[in-house]
Specification:
- The chain is mainly β.
- It has a single domain (about 5-115), classed as Jelly Rolls (Sandwich).
- About 0% of the residues lie in helices and about 50% in strands.
- The chain has no helices and nine strands.
- The chain is elongated.
- About 30% of the residues are buried.
Amino acid sequence: MESAGADARAAEPDAGEGTAASDADVDLDRRGNGRVEYPAGPAGEDLAVALSCRGDGVIEVRLPGVGASFSQDCREDEVVPYEHRLGVDGAERAGTAVVEAPQAVRWTVTVQRREPLAAQ
């Protein structure tokens, strides 16, 4: 579920951006619930939340510092990579991504900043 106040865009990432994944490329080092801290960044950029998961279930990611959240279906038979771009106020502040996932789902999440899609 996307939060109402965020301009969120989700897509499978381009291989050229280095975020596309294959089973061999991705270290899905986490299971179940977790937190991922991210540092402050430049003002005016989008938050780019890269998520890869494998396993039967839904993973939910919340970014309470900017009031955004999204969920993603994961598949048992393949690694599923996604990048969610969030054009939100406060994206320049440091924060925490809070991840909720079943124990059966292996995942990795990174948060970076990127030039807004509208500017590209």
